[in-house]
Amino acid sequence: MNTVKCWFLQVFPCGQESGLPGWCTKYTKVEKWQKKGGTERMTDLLEKYREFGISEAVYRFGEAILESLRERFRQIDDTAEYNQLKVIRSMQRANVSEACLLGTTGYGYNDLGRDTLEAVYADVFRTEDALVRPQITCGTHALALALSSNLRPGDELLSPVGKPYDTLEEVIGIRPSRGSLAEYGVSYRQVDLLPDGSFDYEGIRAAIHDKTRLVTIQRSKGYQTRPTLSVKRIGELISFVKKIKPDVLVMVDNCYGEFVETTEPSEVGADMVVGSLIKNPGGGLAPIGGYIAGKKECVENAACRLTSPGLAKEVGASLGVLPAFYQGLFLAPTVTASALKGAIFAANIYEKLGFAVVPDGTESRHDIIQAVTFGSPEGVTAFCEGIQAAAPVDSFVKPEPWDMPGYDSKVIMAAGAFVSGSSIELSADGPIAPPYAVYFQGGLTFPHAKFGILKSLQNLIDCGVCSIL
Ligand SMILES: *Cc1c(COP(=O)(O)O)cnc(C)c1O
Description:
The protein contains 12 helices and 14 strands. Strand 4 (156-159), helix 6 (166-172) and strand 5 (187-190) form a beta-alpha-beta unit. The protein is globular and about 65 Å long. By secondary structure, the protein is α/β, with parallel strands linked by helices. It has helices at 38-51, 56-68, 70-93, 112-124, 139-150, 166-172, 201-207, 231-244, 296-306, 322-352, 377-389, 446-462, and strands at residues 2-12, 24-34, 129-133, 156-159, 187-190, 212-218, 249-253, 272-276, 290-294, 356-358, 370-373, 411-415, 427-431, 437-441. The longest helix is centred in the last third of the chain and has 31 residues, at 322-352. It folds into 2 domains: 2-68 and 374-462, Alpha-Beta Complex (Aspartate Aminotransferase, domain 1), CATH 3.90.1150; 101-330, Type I PLP-dependent aspartate aminotransferase-like (Major domain) (Aspartate Aminotransferase, domain 2, 3-Layer(aba) Sandwich). The protein has a 7-stranded mixed β-sheet with strand order 3-9-8-7-6-4-5, sandwiched between helices. It binds pyridoxal-5'-phosphate (PLP).
């Protein structure tokens, strides 16, 4: 038995005291006899957070919010458990063996590990085939590959969900660019979502005609404020489009969406799902890579474009990356769950403090991105500095806004990642322009995501951007 000090957080229904709508807190210091156990453990944790400059008030604020999120976190754990079993089942069905972890060099003929991994991906995504390669350099490359290999001159590409991800503008030729689809005679049409975020079915019907060959649907909102699409909504859209034109191909940009739900868009009619291995499915371990899972013919087209007509999937050495690809996929369901919990924790923290957050604290989630609008450049900078200061790598670096290619304002980025640029690792970025929002994602473990968010909050308080009492 020993004496420990502990603080109880009291939550009042009013809201006057704290100035926050419907919410207020008061900290009561009490001294209490405690058995060695719960409270002492918390005191140890608090001491650990203090080493990082996190105050007791910030820590307690976080704890109170976490307490309210228990049920949601339990649901996320259930999804992760389901997806963990799904991945293991696929690995077992494909007979993954120790020999699969060895790589090949040179041409990479008969690369057992590569071919088996592609069978695992096809099984996880319930598709006929898959292309999973370190030679696919990033998500944009995977998407460009899927599009350029499945479209021919004279075809038209349609996006029925508004403007696609920034980097695809140059791939498609929305912004004129060397080597774009437009240069090869592929035209593009776009139907925006309606103001309430719903599909403009009439507009989509009118936009589909005999040249329409491929429909691209982006699951994640990316850096826009539209809602992220659930697999169910994607399925409804695909049914609608295929009813109008049964032979049209549907590709889903699945970036940031993998393993957030128990089903994937390929299970609701998508002919291809495409993504990056330095996001969810790489589980934080894949050092590079992208995937295209889908109909045999679509994947074959992509392989012929990635390597060469005639060579297709037969070449492409896996070098030494296969253990990271396999183990990363194995970890991906729980890593995605950690990132999701971090996003929800951040949403609830900043919502309670009165900042606009998308998605909001209670909305259902279909990707791992969280937007928080701070309304001032200081807010964006302070948040990113906090995330950086919580990183395992490059924590001593102070991020600075810079003129990033492709953006018309300065952008600040926080990332202290083991894999450069990996956004399944805890990371944040924000353009220094109105409305001064940051986009936050990732976290290989929930304790790290939690720490990063508390550190960002502490930094915002220390910089005078907000206060919690
Ligand atoms: C990240 C992302 C991309 C592009 O991936 P990169 O690996 O950054 O090239 C495309 N679409 C969406 C929705 C993304 O989130």
